[in-house]
């Protein structure tokens, strides 16, 4: 699979306790992205955060949270991400979705080329 040099990064900010179709939402998002042949997805777990509810979720020992913040990141072409957005919208009851343009330097095995040095 080729990812264009100029791609889009989708970020979905959700909670660890969020569910979809009887399973964790983050797993459902990643598996749906894989099923639709998107270039890749990563789930990042946050130690602390808050959202629209203004309730702080933290992993501190004295205040164990069952709903830590998660970020699901997906990078692919703009067309592929735009096609995925309605699917994601149907899966997420809430949360935050952001998009930003990114430049892909490497995808898959191989060495990253050395940048041109300015003298």
Automatic annotation (TrEMBL):
Q: Which Gene3D superfamilies match?
A: 3.30.70.120
Q: What is the lineage of its organism?
A: Bacteria, Pseudomonadati, Pseudomonadota, Alphaproteobacteria, Rhodospirillales
Q: Which family does it belong to?
A: Belongs to the UPF0166 family.
Q: Which Pfam families match?
A: DUF190
The residue stretches assigned to a coiled coil in this entry are none
Name recorded for this polypeptide: DUF190 domain-containing protein
């Amino acid at each position: 699979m080729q990812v264009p040099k100029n791609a889009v990064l989708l970020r979905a900010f959700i909670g660890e306790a969020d569910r979809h179709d009887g399973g964790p939402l983050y797993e459902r998002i990643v598996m749906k992205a894989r099923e639709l042949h998107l270039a890749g997805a990563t789930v990042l777990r946050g130690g602390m955060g808050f959202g629209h509810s203004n309730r702080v979720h933290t992993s501190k020992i004295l205040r164990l949270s069952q709903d830590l913040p998660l970020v699901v990141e997906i990078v692919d072409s703009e067309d592929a991400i735009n096609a995925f957005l309605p699917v994601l919208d149907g899966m997420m009851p809430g949360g935050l979705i952001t998009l930003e343009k990114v430049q892909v330097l490497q995808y898959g095995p191989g060495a990253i080329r050395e940048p041109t040095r300015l003298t």
